[in-house]
Structures are given as structure tokens and as C-alpha cells.
Design brief:
Layout: H1 2-16, E1 36-46, E2 53-78, E3 89-96, E4 99-106, E5 108-132, E6 144-154
Antiparallel strand pairs: 1-6, 2-5, 2-6, 3-4, 3-5
Length: about 160
């Protein structure tokens, strides 16, 4: 008899369980769509003079909307160690709203750098400053740097 009572209770529950649904189909969540703005900025310089000299450059990356910025820099640099003056260098900086937000100084390497910013709108200024020379006492090429930058602005 106990089994009959369990089935008697279980059958109405199973029959009514379909009635508990709201009848509405589930709402699909839309993934936000993003627009990407890509920019490349490449600079290089080689010093061929025996005495130290300097070179500088400013570039501007214009960003159209407010969003997140990803930056990748491949920086190659080689600077001699001269006997009479200090070793040369390259300084690569990102300036946003008149403030340096990222900077690196290098004198001998091949390095990849990454940097990310959120809620960026307006312009990013790239500032490159370098000092170097060509050593006359060795057979190596003159001081040089190669800077390859890639910017992705997602908004």
C-alpha cells in the first residue's frame, strides 16, 4: 500500500511539472560589438658621425572615440661604448594629456614591450629622443635604433 501512495502522489506532480514554466523563451544575451582602430608608427635612425649627435621626433596617434588602447613596441638598439664620452641611447615615450604614461630607455637590445590603457580618448603623442655616434676604432656599424610600434584602439 505504501508504494501506491507514493505513485499516487508522484503522478500528479509529474503531470503538473510542465505547467510551472512561464512559457517565455529565454532571452539571448547579445555580445557587445567593438570597433577597432589600428595604427602603426615606425622610426629608425643610424648615426654615421664620429662625434656624438642627437635626433628627436614627435608623432601623434589620433584616437576618434573613447576606449581601450593596446600598444606593442619592438625596439632594437645598439650603441657603442666610446672612450671619450658617454654611451648613446634611445628614449621612447608615450604622452597622454601632457603626461608621460609610459617610457623606456635602451642602448643595446632587441626587446618587445606591451602597454595597455583604459578609457582613452583624444591623442597619444610618441616622443623619441636619441644620442649616438659612429666609433672609428672598431669595425661595427654606427649607433642605431629601430622602433616598430603597433596600436589597437578598441571602442
Amino acid at each position: 500500500m505504501t508504494m501506491r501512495k507514493v505513485f499516487a502522489l508522484l503522478i500528479p506532480i509529474l503531470l503538473l511539472s510542465g505547467c510551472l514554466s512561464s512559457g517565455e523563451s529565454p532571452v539571448e544575451i547579445q555580445e557587445p560589438t567593438y570597433t577597432f582602430q589600428e595604427s602603426y608608427d615606425n622610426h629608425s635612425h643610424q648615426f654615421w658621425n664620429a662625434n656624438p649627435m642627437s635626433v628627436g621626433n614627435n608623432s601623434i596617434i589620433e584616437l576618434n572615440e573613447s576606449g581601450d588602447l593596446s600598444f606593442i613596441l619592438e625596439l632594437t638598439a645598439f650603441f657603442h661604448e666610446p672612450l671619450l664620452w658617454t654611451q648613446g641611447f634611445v628614449n621612447y615615450s608615450l604622452i597622454y594629456e601632457n603626461e608621460t604614461v609610459w617610457s623606456v630607455q635602451d642602448n643595446s637590445s632587441i626587446t618587445d614591450y606591451t602597454f595597455n590603457m583604459t578609457n582613452v580618448t583624444g591623442n597619444i603623442t610618441i616622443q623619441i629622443q636619441s644620442n649616438g655616434s659612429d666609433s672609428q676604432i672598431d669595425n661595427k656599424p654606427g649607433d642605431y635604433f629601430i622602433a616598430r610600434a603597433y596600436f589597437v584602439h578598441k571602442y
